[in-house]
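Re-running the complex after MR caught last week's input typo. The corrected sequence lines follow. Everything else is unchanged.
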Amino acid sequence: MTDEKIISVRELTKQFGDFTAVDHISFDVYKGEIFGFLGANGAGKTTAMRMLCGLSYPTSGSGVVAGFDVYRQAEQIKRHIGYMPQKFALYEDLTVAENMELYGGIYGMSRKVIRDRIDELLAKLDFESERNTLTGELPLGWKQKLSFTVASIHKPDIIFLDEPTGGVDPLTRRKFWELIFETAYEGTTVFVTTHYMDEAEYCNRLSMMVDGRIKALGSPKQLKEQFNAPDMDMVFRILARGAKRGD
Amino acid sequence: MKPIEVISLSKSYGKVEAVKSVSFEVERGTIFGLIGPDGAGKTTIFRMLTTLLTPDSGEARVEGMDILKDYRAIRAHVGYMPGRFSLYQDLSIEENLNFFASLFQVSVEENMHLVEPIYKQIEPFKKRRAGKLSGGMKQKLALCCAMIHKPTVVFLDEPTTGVDAVSRSEFWDMLAQLRDSGITIVVSTPYMDEASRCDKIAFMKEGTILTTGTPNEILSAYGKRLFAMESENMYLSLQQLQADERVDLCYSFGSTIHFTLRDGVQAEKNWAEIQPQIEDCYIALSR
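Corrected-run output:
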């Protein structure tokens, strides 16, 4: 983790009619950091994340992601980030390698670069044997790993993960986090949402959103001290108890 | 007679063995939890016990009635809340509840007392269409609809998945109230921390039951020494421990790393031994 800011957001706001989904949020994320983006259902996490990914324009405020402006350079942002959606979104009737090839092509990588990158990633995941397996036939834990790998095929500066570990068993969930640790260690920033409070502990820093605002921000240790709580679960409960809206 | 008896139940979909010879019993007025990840077979068991799917082999009885021969009678006695929200999105809260009551030929008024504590929380929005409700409100409405015909046994398939930690806890408080009124509840969840809210649990993985027992029985059967280590850099510490030949199993656990030792290895004096939690038990059994 370094001092270099990779995401910088000031007073970012999104209104839908008279409903303020995201209400003047400000924060920075540093290069190589694992940043947890937490909040109760309906707190505004998804709306905020869509603005950071260049998928939705803010109503007001400013935001710079990977050096690009969220209003004027949304297309550039999309090229420099990776996104792993909550719902598995790879093509089930393509093979593992074909999915990687397709997404590499979409990100404008050359055939040669894609080929080398696929070899590199399959070797790293110890997944060479499944190169020609249909994606739909993989177990859930492997689908999630593949989804993460495809999101990082173009070596993005930041990877956004939207509840990446829902539904998998405890050991597979932890193996997935080891992949996240490794990615961050190599310098890629990881921006992650989760409902598992033990996973909140794995983040370098995290923010807690309540009713569209960021109510707390800091390392897990700082937040536990600030709220005099034994674990992140308790911190979450204390903060979310005051929430007025659901999703 | 036990409200639920399951003996060697199996079900395959093509080549996939979804449920492999599963047996368990549930006592009256208790919460029984099926705990395991996606693909463990939880939903298939629910669908067989609610007579929506026929088993390939084995047998099961709900309130003493056979799931094959007495399927019609079973349907009148059980409540079922499927994992996917399946009420009518275009009907209001009130209309959905009336609809389910009339399907079972009861009136909402006569059984309101059963669901009142839950219904009161969504009543202010009773004219709102179900499709426009928040996740937590949908969950409460679905539970009301599953209870309105006064079932003696209810099946709840992952009612808390995707719901935040505070709403999950409130939902379990509601289940405890229903249980205390004598209703038998079978509930599934992928969240290990919810095991402690059940009277008895079954750990499931890939179609089989790994173990059953009360949460305390499962904790005391752990049988290995478990250690915890604080770490500033989770990634590097995990790599170090994984490379250590004395270490058997090691994994992150919140802000700490948990690990066990290979047989015959002496623990170092500064290692902190801890009591296992339910999730440690699942990891040890499912590896």
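None of the earlier attempt is carried over here. The beta strands of chain A are 5-16, 19-30, 34-39, 60-65, 68-69, 81-84, 158-162, 189-193, 205-210, 213-218. Chain A has a mean pLDDT of 92.
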